[in-house]
Specification:
The structure is a homodimer of 455-residue chains. By secondary structure, chain A is α+β, with helices and mostly antiparallel strands. Chain A is 42% helix and 18% strand. The first copy, chain A, has helices at 16-35, 49-52, 57-62, 87-95, 105-114, 159-175, 186-195, 202-224, 230-240, 246-256, 261-280, 343-353, 373-388, 402-411, 422-427, 445-453; strands at 39-40, 46-48, 66-68, 96-100, 123-132, 144-153, 179-185, 286-288, 302-308, 317-322, 336-342, 366-368, 393-395, 416-419, 429-434, 440-444. An eight-stranded mixed beta sheet of chain A has the order 1-5-6-11-10-9-7-8. In chain A, a hairpin with a 5-residue loop joins strand 15 (429-434) and strand 16 (440-444).
């Protein structure tokens, strides 16, 4: 006998209930994007490997799923290379020209460069598609997962950053998830690193600042001493000791970074952005957070990370400003800013908080019991009338035992069951059972239509 | 300099206007599916090759996109096989365990078998996802394209076939495309082949019948003589000469197939289905068409094909009854029936007929001109109020020349532009320009909200 089939590890099937809830998330996010005039695009699942390789670091290259060339892919290939130590790597570049997309950002940059003459800038786009990574699967980490990206490219205005914060605020308010958005600016981080004389230690410094609350100033300085000089640590102290509200922190930064042009630029960007935030009267709190660095190297200005307040979960959204994303494909001076919503984590958070609205599960409103051929032919035109009134309904296809048909209604969350037997056909009436209460009532066809249309 | 980037041949980018129109098609189809209580599922892009291989014939196997195993895929592989003639084929089975899905039917069968204990039967599902085939790309044929499949599995009732016809009727009526649905039954075809003594010549016989109109009876019989015996051709004549309406044709078939049990079963199924069709009062015509065979071998009962009446295009939808689809994965006696809508062809037909409704292109309703910082801070809270009323709107992010901002509105099909300068701020009013007519009018914020909410 055939073995029970399975799917590749790290991938998932989505059954109806999960799909409906996921669609609820995607639809909510899409509606918000469209309110802000972002437009949908889609790119192919497969990109040329030349588009993908070298864009995600050496680790990223290893995580790309490569697609075997079609047909006689070994034809003309000199297999002598198969003696080498890195034979797998070398052969893969010869027998694979395509790979599955790893994120939506690089395909978006490729799209903008390729179609630059057809686009109007600033170009505001959103894109909701799966991406694939050959990561080791573990809880919450999949080899196929969805990203919801929203970006504007071709404008340096900080109003775009403000708009994205507004979008984040709207999305989580609509999804009923309380969040806080942490904001930093890469230029401030660069200014700090420059000021203390270690421009390549940005990451170490942010990691150290991040540990302040947990291990205290003394231990942080101790750790830093393995990375940077004593003089640099001394210069960093005002920032480590920084206290107070947003404006006080800004003053400390201004004093500390007074000789760093890029640092001061970052501070002025941050101040302007927080001005907009106060105008927008956002529902969520936004906080300046100097510990926020974000991994990807292409960010050059504001960076964002959104965390849920009620569930311990990594970030549920993040992004930032990149001044030269399309440069890798030859189009210079295209500044952009964008954020990416993690649909899988949002799903997990909503599940844990139990905040999916009831209407996110779509079913038919009413099931018609099947008693056999004569009753069926009475019911078919009736179904048509209900659907014309936008009422989702169905007839059980087989004339099986009543109990089985009622079980079907229960399993599918169908709130009403219509019973039409000989008596009902004679009197042109319908017995309607409310599944939750078990109550039954007889009504005319017109009454039934009104009754269901009101729900 | 970097070369202008490109995408793999046979794949496509979808720009905003095309995306919106495609989404209009998908949304319309989904809404209909849901009216009939079909439920969404999704399966991973990658399936194990053991799931896919051998399900689409030898040709299909060649068209599968295979995914290279991650990491050191050649480790432990004996490369002696690379001396063989079919070395590419043999090596691919060793270095690739996964492939991209080729259609939605086999993944659906796999899904049903894998999750059989979690599902309630009859199980009504729809699935809208891309599929990939390494076909030679040509006009209208892509290597990545979307299928919209709707199936019910676990019920043998012909009411399911009737329901699918109802769905087809609704979809094309809503999309404003006139179609005809051709219906045949594999059991009738089997009955004919059995009756004339050539059970394996079903395809040749349907091809011959199909040519009747074009080349005439004499030439058809001539062609048939190279495939089947003279006696068989004689027995086939009543069917080739068959005339009249549905009932007359049924009578001819009954007489001809009187000794074929399977043929008579097919005829009685066809009669029952046409009874339901007449009850349903469909908008589209449905025709018995004995020339319809459809390629896939798993069909066992009714088969459908939908053709547009106003544009020459292949079939825009097709499907049928399969009695043993899940048998390939070890689950017997699961009869199902389903159809698949071809979104790409539907798009092309609608484009050619120019029947996309205007509202399928979504844009913001109003663009606010950006004159600089002071005006901007007046506008930000206003945008928030509009969006709370579900009005899509945007502020141009940069304070550039008016003409550039107006061009942006035109390019993005934005019907109104709001001009708020010093004067307007003083009087708390807004000048609104209707882009199509060029007319301008001044109004209060409240008036603007009402004005746009009504559109």
């Amino acid at each position: 006998m055939a073995q029970k089939p399975s799917i590749p590890k790290g991938t998932r099937d989505f059954a109806p209930q999960e799909m409906m809830r996921r669609n609820y998330i995607f639809e909510t996010i899409k509606r918000v994007f469209e309110h802000y005039a972002y437009k949908p695009i889609e790119t192919p699942a497969m990109e040329n490997l030349s588009t993908l390789l070298g864009k995600y670091g050496e680790e990223g290259d290893k995580l790309l799923f490569k697609i075997l060339n079609s047909g006689d892919f070994l034809n003309g290939v000199n297999l002598d290379i198969c003696e080498d130590d890195d034979k797998s790597k070398r052969l893969s570049t010869i027998i694979c020209e395509k790979g599955l997309r790893y994120d939506l950002t690089v395909p978006f940059a490729r799209f903008v460069v390729q179609h630059q003459n057809e686009l109007t800038f600033p170009f505001k786009r959103y894109q909701i598609q799966p991406v694939w990574r050959a990561d080791r699967p573990q809880k919450g980490r999949y080899r196929e997962f969805f990203q919801c990206d929203v970006d504007v490219i071709g404008s340096t205005s900080l109003l775009n950053e403000a708009e994205l914060l507004n979008i984040i605020d709207d999305v989580y308010k609509k999804l009923n998830i309380r969040v806080v958005t942490k904001i930093n600016n890469r230029k401030i981080l660069a200014g700090i690193a420059e000021t203390i004389g270690f421009p390549d230690k940005i990451i170490d410094i942010t990691i150290a600042i991040d540990k302040l609350d947990k291990i205290g100033l003394e231990k942080v300085n101790e750790e830093l001493s393995t990375k940077i000089s004593a003089e640099a640590i001394a210069k960093l102290q005002p920032i480590l000791l920084m206290k107070g509200d947003f404006l006080e922190k800004v003053e400390t930064l201004k004093t500390t970074l007074t000789h760093s042009e890029i640092g001061l630029k970052g501070i002025s960007e941050m101040v302007e952005l927080f001005d907009y935030i106060s105008d927008l009267k956002l529902y969520m709190p936004c906080e300046l957070d100097l510990t926020l660095a974000r991994g990807l190297n292409y960010y050059t200005g504001a960076i964002f990370e959104v965390k849920t307040l009620d569930v311990a979960m990594g970030s549920v959204c993040g992004g930032g400003r990149y001044d030269d994303l399309t440069g890798i494909f030859g189009l210079k001076n295209m500044s952009g800013v964008g954020v990416s919503f993690g649909a899988d984590r949002i799903y997990d958070v909503m599940n844990e908080l139990n905040v999916f609205p009831e209407h996110s599960i779509v079913s038919s409103q009413i099931l018609f019991v099947n008693f056999g051929h004569a009753e069926t032919r009475f019911i078919l035109p009736l179904l048509k009338r209900l659907r014309e009134k936008n009422i989702a309904c169905e007839l059980y296809p087989d004339a099986v035992k009543m109990q089985k048909q009622f079980n079907y209604a229960n399993d599918n969350h169908i709130p009403y069951v219509a019973i039409i037997g000989e008596d009902e056909i004679k009197t042109s009436s319908i017995t309607v059972k409310t599944m939750q209460s078990g109550q039954q009532q007889k009504m005319s066809v017109e009454h039934l239509i009104d009754f269901l249309a009101q729900k």
